[in-house]
Specification:
NAD(P)-bd_dom_sf, oxidoreductase, oxidoreductase activity, alpha/beta, 49% helix, 260 residues, single chain, SDR_fam, 7 strands, Oxidoreductase, seven-stranded parallel β-sheet, Rossmann fold
C-alpha cells in the first residue's frame, strides 16, 4: 500500500470528519485543517490512538492572505503533500435579494477563493512528486442544477466546477489528477446553517447521502483519473438531462426545486 500524505480542509465535521476516519491508514499522514481548535485536537487524539500520523492546523480559510504562510508551515512540518481534498464550505438558503453582500463574499472566499489559493500554492510541489498526486474539489450538484433560494451557493459551486474543469486541462500533461465531487443533499450539519428552520432537511431526509458512504467513494477514486464523482446517481442523471432539456426538467421538477 502506498505511503502518502493527504490534506483535508473542513476536517472536523460532516464529510471532512468522515474522510479523516476513512483515510486514516497507519501508513498515511493526515493534514487536518479546520476553524475549531478543540474539535481538531479531539479528532487528532482519536486518530493518533489508532496509530495514524496527524498534523492539525487551526485557521479561518476566509483569511486568504494567511494561506501562503499556512502552506509554508505545512511543508516545513510535513515535507510534501500527495493529495488535497478541498472540502471546507458553507451555504445559505435565501433569495438573492435577501442575501447580504457580506454573506456572499464570505461564501465565495471559503467555497472558491480559499480552494483556488491552496491549490495554487500546493500544485508546484504536487508536480515535483514522482508518484501520482491528486486534487479533489468538493463541488455540488447545485453547481449543475441551480434552484431557488440558493443563488449565491449555486454560483460558488458553478465556480468550483468551472475552475476544476480548466485546472484539469492545464495539468493534463503532469502527474496531478483533478476530480470534482458533486453531491446532492447529505446528512451533515450543513443544513443547520443553510436552513435554520429545518424544513428542507426534513423534506429530503429520506434521500440524503451519508458522509461515510461518500468518504468511501472518495477513498476508492484517490489517485485515479476520474473526472467527476456525482452522487446520488439519480440526481447525476437529472443533471445530465437538465443540460440537454433545461426548460423541460425545470418544469417537471419545479415542486422539488421549491422545497426550500
Amino acid at each position: 500500500m502506498k505511503k502518502d500524505t493527504i490534506l483535508i480542509t473542513g476536517a472536523t465535521k460532516g464529510l471532512g470528519r468522515a474522510l479523516s476516519y476513512q483515510l486514516a491508514r497507519k501508513n498515511r499522514t493526515l493534514i487536518l485543517i479546520g476553524r475549531s481548535e478543540d474539535l481538531l485536537l479531539e479528532l487528532a487524539r482519536d486518530l493518533k490512538a489508532q496509530g495514524v500520523t496527524v498534523f492539525t492546523y487551526t485557521v479561518d480559510l476566509t483569511e486568504i492572505e494567511k494561506l501562503e504562510s499556512l502552506v509554508q508551515t505545512i511543508l516545513t512540518d510535513v515535507g510534501s503533500v500527495d493529495a488535497i481534498i478541498n472540502n471546507a464550505g458553507f451555504g445559505l438558503f435565501e433569495f438573492a435579494t435577501e442575501t447580504l453582500r457580506a454573506t456572499t463574499t464570505n461564501m465565495f472566499q471559503l467555497n472558491v477563493l480559499a480552494m483556488m489559493e491552496l491549490n495554487c500554492l500546493l500544485i508546484p510541489g504536487l508536480i515535483k512528486q514522482t508518484n501520482k498526486t491528486h486534487i479533489i474539489n468538493i463541488g455540488s450538484l447545485a453547481g449543475k442544477i441551480a434552484t431557488p433560494k440558493a443563488t449565491s451557493y449555486a454560483a460558488t459551486k458553478h465556480a468550483v466546477i468551472g475552475y476544476s474543469n480548466a485546472l484539469r486541462l492545464e495539468l493534463k500533461a503532469t502527474n496531478v489528477a483533478v476530480t470534482t465531487v458533486n453531491l446532492g443533499p447529505m446528512k451533515t450539519s450543513f443544513f443547520k446553517t443553510a436552513d435554520e428552520s429545518g424544513y428542507y432537511e426534513q423534506a429530503v431526509e429520506k434521500i440524503m447521502l451519508t458522509p461515510e458512504k461518500v468518504a468511501t467513494k472518495i477513498d476508492q477514486l484517490l489517485y485515479t483519473n476520474k473526472r467527476e464523482l456525482n452522487l446520488p446517481l439519480w440526481m447525476s442523471i437529472g443533471s445530465k438531462l437538465h443540460a440537454i432539456f433545461p426548460r423541460t426538467l425545470e418544469f417537471i421538477m419545479q415542486g422539488a426545486f421549491n422545497k426550500k
